[in-house]
Amino acid sequence: LDKxxxxxxxxxxxxxxSIKDKSAVLGGCTFSKHPEGKDAGDMNGSVILLQxxxxxxxxxxxxxxxxxxxxxxxxx
Length: 76
Description:
It is a single chain. The chain is an alpha+beta fold. The protein is built from three helices and two strands. It has helices at about 1-20, 55-65, 65-70; strands spanning about 25-30, 45-50. It is globular. The model has no long low-confidence stretch (mean pLDDT about 90).
């Protein structure tokens, strides 16, 4: 969680062009349980749905995202 929070704004800044051009279709964090009340829940992963011309372009986008570079996302 510390790694994620440290680069979260960089990740948000990086994804903005993809949101605007609609290539980032859906994304967000996942939780180990449904958050209740003021409990923010336990973030345990991420999901992103990208629209790209090729699979390689999608992998390139993922490899260059700040979350991947900081070790938040493990692409292996």
